[in-house]
Design brief:
Layout: H1 11-19, H2 25-42
Amino acid sequence: MAKKLSLILDNEFIQYCKLNDIEDIEKLAKEVFTKGFTMLKYGDRPGIVSNEIIPVIPLGPPTGLKTLHKIEVKSNEKSDLYGE
């Protein structure tokens, strides 16, 4: 017969649940554990299954760019903020 494993909750986790008015502490603990284990098992991005490197082919310069207008900035020759 397989031994049933239980989750021991940290006091900080229980305090977090009390502060955030979470009533079903064990349900949240199981969800957090499942999410953490999934990240450990598959990585941060489970959509990427293999470590295959896909080459990126540059397409060249973008087309249809609009001309930007130049803005002239006039410098203030005054010696300080108050013009003195």
